[in-house]
Amino acid sequence: MLRVRGTTYHFRRIVPPALRTALNRREIWVSLKTGYQNEARKRASLLHAKTTELFMQAHSMLAEPDALSRLEGVRVSLRDLQSVNLPSSAQETEAVPVSAAMPKPRTMKKTAKAPKATPLMLSGALKRFVLDSPHASTDTKKATQRAVDLFLQAFGDAPVSIIGGEKAGAFRDLLFSLPASLGKRKSSLTLEEEAQRTREEGLPTLTGKSVKNHMMRLSALWNQLHQRELVTRNPWAGWNFENGQKTVRRSWTTKELALLASASWHSTSVPEQTFRLVTLIAAYSGMRLGEICTLRKEDLQTVDGIPCFLIRPHPETGWAPKTDAGTRMVPVHSKLIEAGVLMLKETTDGPYLLPGLETSKQGVRGAALGRAFSLLKTRIGLPAEITFHSFRHTVSTQLRNADANIREVWIDRLLGHGATHKSQGTTTYLTGISTANLRQTIEAICYPETAFANMMI
């Protein structure tokens, strides 16, 4: 019986089919003039009783000779339900009985309808109670704006009165699936597409602390709305921000690498040779999956006499490295040269360096490979801590345990990490690291001969 329009509940009841012609209507629709559900149910119950009595009267009148004239009184009573001043309790309604004898309708002047109240939208609540508030600090305004913008991107604008626990929970779950780098780089992807890319590439996600901060900003806004009786409850309070047991990714062991190398490849969406090649490049460079899959032929160049991968933005497709530090140069490891990687520039068709990869609807090249790798590692029994991203962990661990002549800033530069400390000397030095030093660093990556045996192009 209850329907919501904007912020107000309405009573709706279907007229019995046998009475529709006689009463000249198919349904009853009455504003209950309240936005509170419990009050609306009380008023709807009273209207249900009144309409039931009128329907019974109409049924009994159909069998009488002067049915048409008598039914006119029932029609008027049904129309008058629209202007009934509904009380808030059943006790008050006992003084307003429905009369059995219907008087002839009197000609009455039509009263002007009151304009419908415009529901308070989330965007409007943000502006009114936060952005325009003289009491809110700059930090509060900025953080609340960010939280609301994320909600609007995910679900669109909506009246605050209908945003409840279901939407709050869906927003919390979405936040936990978004990349930790969200907002730190330009992106044309929707939030759902960002979450999908994060899953496929095994990227780190927002922490419980970050999710809590967004939710608490919305909770603070809702506290104001609740105090002003613009909402009935605060759906943003009381949530748990421990997102289960967090899986800590780690490096590959020698045994796990051997298991991967010996595993059969069953994917039909990505050629086995492409999978083996991408795996080999990741293991001997520490590059991310997205960086490898988006390499173009012109990104393989000789710099200072040393073959190098150039990881840089591609404006024509909108792809860019994860961070500013991600734009970098990575010398090609001697093992990759032995495997024939340099030949790809001449033998691969199309603009990309690696063959056999498609671009997904979300604009991600190599998404199918990421999914296929996840299925493979599950099939061969690798633990959850091992993902494709584990190759970066392996390379980082090897280099930091290698010869002392390899400096920390060289490793950071090679992997596309920001400098571990931000002194003026470090910042200046990072811009001047020679290609020879980077090659010395990359050549420190070493695996057992059995790990990538017979991996030739």
TrEMBL record:
This is Integrase. PROSITE patterns: TYR_RECOMBINASE (PS51898). Keywords: DNA integration, DNA recombination, DNA-binding. GO terms for molecular function: DNA binding. Residues 247-443 form the Tyr recombinase domain. Belongs to the 'phage' integrase family. It holds the Pfam family DUF6538. GO terms for biological process: DNA integration; DNA recombination. InterPro entries: DNA_brk_join_enz, DUF6538, Integrase-like_cat_sf, Integrase_catalytic, Tyrosine_recombinase_XerCD.
